[in-house]
Amino acid sequence: MTARVLTAVREVERKYEARPGQEPPSLSGLPGVSTETPPELFTLEAAYYDTADLRLLRNALTLRRRTGGDDAGWHLKTPGGGDARTEIRLPLAPVSAGVPGELSSLVRSYTRSALLEPVARISTTRTRRRLLGDEQNLLAEIVVDRVHAVALEDDRGRDWTEIEVEQAAGGAILADAIEARFADAGIARSSSPAKVDRVLGDRIASEPVREPGRRLTAGEVVLCYLRTQIAALAAGDLAVRRDEPDSVHRMRVAARRARSTLQAYASVLGGRAATRALIDELGWLGGQLSAARDVEVQRDRLSTRLGEVPPRLVDSDLRERLDRYFSDRAEQARTAALDTLDSDRYLQLLDRLDALAASGATRRAGKAVPKVLKTVAHTVDERVRACEGAAPGPDRDELVHAVRKAAKRLRYAIEVARPLAPGTVTRALARFTALQDLLGEHQDAVVAQAQLQALGGFTCGLLYQQERDIADERAADLGRAWRAARRAARPLWT
User: Fold this and answer.
1) Domain-terminating residue out of 203, 237, 267
2) What is the Cα 349 distance to its own chain's centre?
3) Tens-place pLDDT, residues 393-437
4) What is the pLDDT of residues 22-40, one digit of tens each?
5) What is the pLDDT of residues 71-94, one digit of tens each?
6) What's the Cα-to-Cα distance from 267 to each of 263, 273, 274, 363, rounded to whole Å?
7) How do strand 7-18 and strand 35-36 relate by DSSP bridges?
8) Among 116, 254, 311, 374, fewest CB within 10 Å belongs to which?
């Protein structure tokens, strides 16, 4: 049997409300449009799949099996920012086979152990027109959809008409011109990002509205930030499974942010006893993903460094050895990362994070948050002083790494405080970016030395000394960079 291959298509589209029987206005005369094609008619049938509590829909994901049209198949749509979505496609299989494993595995961080089952059926009579340029290239696609949708939970049905504008070569300029023409005809943007939202959206619980004038509690501030990181973990999981560029890094950052938040704000979240196990598990997750990230960073770093060495000083077989060294480690690291994401331990971690994020706390943020920031800043202070009194070498490298971990914790703790003092936080984080860049460069240089020792040879010896010099230079600059960052952040705790 031939293996089915996932394909991904980026869509940029806008949806509009239309009255029953309403057609879009003529679009002739719009920028770059030379031809508006005759209408094409399609009948589309789609079954939408989700968990019983709509976990995909709650996270702006849609999964469907659609027949009819020229893109029949299984479709998983993921957010792409603004009007953009990425549609991951798989050819049709017998409906009795259920959701294909290739797609269900992609959303496992959302579904966990819950079953994916049909939650809605949507029938669409679609009329499509295309706008073409002078060379008959596709500029945009306009479809009028007459929709009949049924929520399977209670057989509740709805009918409506909507218009979609999918951008092609005409881009946003043409899309804006079409929208202006629509507005003149009384056709406004739809409030529903997808058809299934329109029939099931009322089952999605919205965030409670905070009473005007009521001060934020520390729990609200911290848990809001923590929920953002949990969502980033799930999105990163999907991206890692798809092997997207920089996806491991994004997922590790989300894990670190969540872990640092639990460490810094444990007193707000029930104390150390309530957060200790989660802190440990998030540390485990970051460690499991670290090899894949280190391979990405070090491969690029050493390839760049090698390109700066005069050819006469490059060992004849070094490029081949470098490629083989990192290729082997990249394959092993990816396998280990995917095994981690498929493990029960990881899924249990996500469940426990969700449970914590659903809890509450009532301490006033105005008192609790500054106290936390001051305490973490004091820790960074002590670690920087220890570095400044240490001699260059591996022992100082360890001390600088300890500063890096504490500074990250402070940076993420400051991010939590953004709702309380957005301007001050923005200014402080600008300084912390420079500090973290310095500390990250030091750590990358230290790790590179170990890689170069393993590779061996004359050229690697030259590069080793170069990385040693970089690490020492960054360590020497640490005190200055920290004091600049501390000055910018100090108003948050004084």
Assistant:
1) 203
2) 18
3) 999 999 999 999 999 999 999 999 999 999 999 999 999 999 999
4) 889 989 889 899 999 999 9
5) 999 999 999 888 899 999 999 877
6) 9, 10, 9, 10
7) unpaired
8) 311
Which residues make beta-bridge pairs with 122?
46, 149
Q: Are residues 371 and 460 in the same domain?
A: yes
Number of domains in the chain: 2
Q: How far is CA 464 from the centre of its chain?
A: 35
pTM exceeding 0.85: yes
3-state secondary structure 45-87: EEEEEECCCCHHHHCCCEEEEEECCCCCEEEEEEECCCCEEEE
Is 342 found in the same domain as 250? yes
> Rounded mean pLDDT of 339-366?
86
Decide if 238 contacts 230 (C-beta within 8 A).
Answer: no
Domain range for 289: 218-492
Question: What is the per-residue DSSP string for 70-138?
Answer: SS-EEEEEEE-STTEEEEEEE----GGG-S-HHHHTTTHHHHTTPPPEEEEEEEEEEEEEEEE-TTS-E
Distance in angstroms between the alpha carbons of the first and the last residue of the chain: 68
Residue that terminates a domain, selected from 161, 178, 203: 203
pLDDT at 448: 95
β 117-132/7-18 pair status: unpaired
Residue 35 has, within 13 A of its CA and on its CB side, a CA count of 11
